[in-house]
Design brief:
Length: about 725
């Protein structure tokens, strides 16, 4: 069906619809197969049959979606089909690492591959749309939802957005195995005050444009079918009523033609925000801002008739939203075949095995090696006895992380499962030694007894999955005291210790734990194949290549902390009293953005720009040689940063403009080439327009944002093409 036919069919349908049916299309209700917000959740079957519901979330399964779809298609007056949405964030049944971990693979192809599998599995479960990718730039580990983000950087977030949206959707949304993507939560939700969930947000106009909007712009350019506004406000204006950003910017300037789907009761919550006296006003504000679908707020159902009567909205404005929702359903192919996703396709054994293999690969590619003293790792599989202690050693449930959709803990593998496959069981001494947040002398003694009897200790510490994700803000993002007590007792035995940290955020670690650990690994929540992925890393089957997508603070007081801060008038200098620093903590982070070790080591040459002057409109190349100076093949990620040392505004100390990966055999030298366009150096100027300014641009290439890892060059940016200028 071409666009003209579709538009004609939509107009014909609209002409037949009464007000209730129009509002029904704007009403999304939650079922109770999963809980993702407050309030009642039983499916309102009578409303569905009466045409008062346009879409459903938290309901899946070919048979079950077919029955609900049948009610909409066969029992309503006009037979308009529903669409079914769900939070398929990092997998549907096969669960991949949480986004904060997977972003650290810095591999767009991997991000696409996992999204494709997630889309296929979601489609097999009768789903049409996912409320993903989550694209909030996050620099505050107190915020539980940092787990769901691609980390602290706008460039990384934009690359992640592009890969995920294109892979979820895979072109034609009406084809089975493709899933409409929802870019969320628009915008700057990651800036909640003090890291507290749903708290107020204040952000400068320049940071909004240069940091928080770019990932969403990338999602729109990748063709995202939907966008979800954030629960939060910006400077007192809640996103669900933010017409200037939702309509003027995203729709008018960016050309977004998709659907805005509110967050869960986000429209009704405009009353709590204090910008609406009742649901009528809340509905009017959201509709005028361009929010098409009211998820579980019933604000449109209960408020729009009154808003119409009071003249707060017009029928034409309602029709605009209805047209967009009908347009999405046409794009999903639901008017041609409302039951197209209800086939109940069951993947064959080979497909399931391939999906598990990808979960194992992505798990290993997301696990970050942070320390490896005396190359204690990799550990020869099956050699020596291991004491595996800590509450997360056999925590299959927690390995799936927050938002794990239909991930089945009974079909997932914890570290212990992975090690049992490599060591004789009698050589693995397991003792939890603590729960997530409690311990006692008996538990600690059992863990110490295991450690005494072993050649090496694997200490599994961190967060449970319920400590992370939505409504998971922690004022103190440290390891629980009980686990620190266990770690201290075990480390006092002076056995070799490999500490593995699980969780959904950068954790605050005591110096003694980092110092006493021979090896330190950030495993995050690695997904269904966690145990096998970790065992592959620990035994060297897989050489670790993941890097940190978010900075790990040394102390909670440093938060928010990220690599792209501005220099200030008194740049941090440990030797200068009057400089930007603390008297009770360092300025440097525990681990920097991009850090992560390999079982080999790499040497980097100086960047070689292909020109000394970059003119407006041009694109330059910057090449750099890299050598694998170690004893085994490895993958290295290189980052391209720029610095604008003198501009009309104070500019960040580093800005990420590219990342590349290269696989090299031991002793092999390769060349990595970055492309840098003049336009990539634009920024939001004093008048909030995008500007490009003449002058020196520093080029820094390295293995992380740690300045000591960077090799540098400089070019001149010339914005005027007039040779005499
Ligand atoms: C939740 C989350 C959002 C999710 C939605 C539907 O409250 O904020 O990310 O997509 O509700 O479950």
């Amino acid at each position: 069906m071409n666009g003209t036919d579709r538009a004609a069919r939509i107009e014909a349908l609209l002409a037949e619809m009464n007000l209730d049916e129009k509002i029904g299309q704007l009403n999304m209700v939650s079922a109770d197969l999963s809980v993702s917000g407050p309030g009642r959740r039983a499916l309102p079957l009578a409303d569905i049959s009466a045409g008062l519901v346009g879409s459903v979330l938290n309901w899946w399964g070919a048979r079950d979606t077919r029955e609900i779809q049948r009610r909409a298609v066969e029992e309503t007056r006009l037979g308009i089909p529903l669409f079914f949405g769900f939070d398929v964030i990092h997998g549907q049944r096969t669960i991949f690492p949480i986004p904060l971990a997977e972003a650290g693979a810095f591999d767009t192809t991997l991000w696409e591959r996992t999204a494709r599998v997630a889309a296929q599995e979601a489609a097999e479960d009768g789903l049409h749309l996912t409320f993903a990718p989550m694209l909030d730039v996050a620099r505050d580990p107190r915020w539980g939802r940092i787990a769901e983000t691609p980390g602290e950087d706008a460039f990384l977030g934009a690359a992640f957005a592009d890969a995920k949206v294109r892979a979820f959707q895979n072109g034609d949304l009406s084809r089975n195995g493709n899933l409409a993507a929802t870019a969320k939560h628009f915008v700057a939700y990651g800036l909640v005050n003090a890291g507290r969930e749903y708290a107020q947000v204040d952000v400068s106009e320049r940071a909004l444009r240069d940091v928080y909007l770019p990932p969403f712009r990338a999602a729109v350019e990748a063709g995202a079918a939907a966008i979800m506004p954030a629960f939060t406000d910006i400077a007192g204006l809640p996103m669900h009523a933010h017409r200037e950003l939702l309509f003027s910017l995203v729709r008018e300037r960016w050309g977004f033609e998709g659907v805005f789907i509110s967050d869960y009761s986000g429209i009704a919550e405009l009353v709590n925000h204090g910008v609406a006296a009742d649901l009528v006003e809340a509905a009017a504000l959201a509709l005028k801002a361009g929010v098409d679908i009211d998820m579980m707020g019933f604000a449109y159902l209960k408020g729009l008739p009154g808003a119409l009567e009071r003249g707060l909205v017009s029928m034409a404005e309602i029709d605009v939203c209805v047209r967009r929702v009908l347009g999405l359903k046409f794009a999903l192919g639901l008017f041609d075949d409302p039951y197209r996703a209800c086939a109940g396709d069951v993947p064959d054994f080979a497909t399931r095995a391939l999906r598990r293999a990808l979960a194992r690969e992505s798990g290993a590619r997301s696990i970050v090696l942070l320390k490896n003293r005396h190359d204690i790792l990799p550990h020869d599989a099956g050699h020596g006895t291991l004491a595996v202690v800590g509450p997360l050693a056999d925590a299959r449930h927690d390995m799936l992380g927050p938002w794990c959709a239909l991930g089945d803990q009974d079909e997932s593998f914890a570290l212990l499962d992975g090690l049992y496959g490599r060591w004789p069981r009698e050589w693995i001494l397991h003792a939890p030694g603590a729960t997530i947040d409690t311990t006692d002398e008996t538990m600690i003694e059992s863990a110490c007894a295991a450690a005494r009897g072993a050649d090496c200790v694997i200490l599994c510490l961190g967060e449970s999955r319920s400590m992370s994700g939505e409504a998971g803000s922690r004022a103190d993002p440290s390891l629980p005291a009980a686990q620190l007590a266990l770690a201290k007792a075990v480390m006092a035995l002076e056995k070799p210790v490999v500490a593995i940290l699980f969780g959904g955020r950068p954790l605050i670690l005591p110096d003694w734990l980092v110092e006493a650990s021979d090896a330190l690994i950030a495993a995050w929540f690695p997904g269904s194949e966690a145990g096998h992925a970790l065992a592959d890393i620990l035994t060297g089957v897989c050489n670790p290549s993941a890097r940190l997508a978010a900075t790990w603070p040394m102390a909670a007081g440093q938060i928010p902390i990220w690599f792209g801060q501005r220099p200030t008038g008194r740049p941090a200098d440990a030797k200068e009293m009057y400089s930007s620093k603390y008297i009770d903590a360092p300025v440097e982070p525990r681990f920097a953005f991009g850090e992560g070790l390999s079982y080999t080591n790499f040497l980097l040459g100086d960047p070689q720009p292909d020109r000394a002057v970059l003119q407006r409109g041009e694109t330059m190349s910057i090449s750099v040689c890299i050598t694998n100076a170690g004893s085994r093949r490895g993958r290295q990620t290189l980052f391209l940063f720029t610095r604008d040392p003198v501009a009309s505004l104070s500019r960040p100390l580093l800005e990420l403009k590219g990342f590349r990966q290269i696989d090299l055999d031991a002793g092999e030298t390769g060349t990595v080439t970055f492309e840098l366009a003049a336009d990539d150096l634009a920024f939001t100027g004093c008048d909030l327009s995008s500007v490009l300014e003449d002058g020196c641009i520093e080029i820094h290439i390295g293995f992380s944002a740690r300045r000591t890892s960077l090799r540098s060059a400089a070019i001149e940016l010339k914005t005027s093409t007039d040779a005499t200028a």
